Amino acid sequence: MLRDHVGEVQYGGTGIFKCTNPGQIALTFDDGPWQYTEDIIEQFGKYDFKATFFITGNNLYLGRQIDDERTEYPALLRKMHRRGHQLASHTWTHQHLDIINHTERVKEILYNEMALRNVLGLVPTYMRLPYGGPRRPDVMEDLNDLGYHIIQWNVDTKDYLHNSEDKMRASIAIFDEAIGRDGEGSYIVLCHDIREWTAKLLVPAMLEIIADRGYEAVTVGECLNDPSEFWYRDPENEG
Predict the structure, then answer these.
(1) Are strands 216-217 and 187-192 parallel, antiparallel or unpaired?
(2) What residues are labeled active site?
(3) Helix axis angle, 203-212 relative to 37-47, nearest 10°?
(4) Of the chain's two ends, which shows fewer C-beta atoms within 10 Å, N or C?
(5) 3-state SS, residue 28
């Protein structure tokens, strides 16, 4: 498969932390899909907004693999893609890439590519590092060589800390305070679609704030002015 660097968006490096376009917000969700993901995309549909999902192919904590056709997840991923949401990589088993060696790092990337290829017939060009980043120079060089845009964030909702309705209100407050009221900021926001109260409380609150302040929720690719044909690679294209 060709791993050309195409378009104007940075590959590798220390990562990308915010959108290019004022007035756009990229809501991003890590670690899924899971039982709450479909509800999240239905909420986005009410506003005609889009999101980006950083997919962990074999989430050991959840006990599921995304390309197991005996489960609901392949069909869900195809539905998300059809609706215009961006699907990106969050590695195969969410390993800390600084801790494992080069061979294991490459496996983490390639195994997730194979699973997404099995489901979508496509391989993403965008990824987020487990536990954030940037990482050691050799790690970032590996990801550059594999042809990935590394997406960070400039708003962390910290929803991963909150497992109840009352505690999740702290994440809403973080988002509310971070998003400018003039509708002119540009943000990449970190959330997790495997959290119940993210789906039930945080997502509806964020979407309402975005709409009320005149922002548009778009994919990471769109907020970076990257044409959608550059968000994925054709695994059958060998040049």
Answers:
(1) unpaired
(2) 30, 192
(3) 20
(4) C
(5) strand
| CA–CA dist 135, 143 (Å, integer) | 10
Rg for the chain, CA atoms, rounded? 17
Tokens for 22, please give them.
């004022």
**Amino acid identity, residue 44?**
F
Checking if the pLDDT of 132 tops 90, the result is no
Q: pLDDT tens-digit profile of 58-85?
A: 999 899 999 999 999 999 999 999 999 9
Burial class (CB in 10 A: 0-12, 13-18, 19+), 8: exposed
Distances (CA, A) of 12 to 15, 36, 45, 127: 6, 31, 32, 10
In terms of Cβ atoms closer than 10 Å to its own Cβ (0-12, 13-18, 19+), residue 196 is middle
Q: Are 67 and 128 in contact (CB under 8 A)?
A: no
Tokens at 148, concatenated: 């990935």
Least Cα distance to 129 among 114, 146, 116 occurs for: 146
Region 88-111: what's the mean pLDDT?
96
CA 59, distance to chain mean position in Å, is 15
Give me the pLDDT at residue 192, please: 98
Query: Buried b / exposed e across 204-234, counting CB within 10 Å, b at 16+?
Result: ebbbebbeebebbbbbbbbbbebeeebbbbe
**Tens-place pLDDT, residues 144-189:** 999 999 999 999 999 999 989 999 999 999 999 999 999 999 999 9
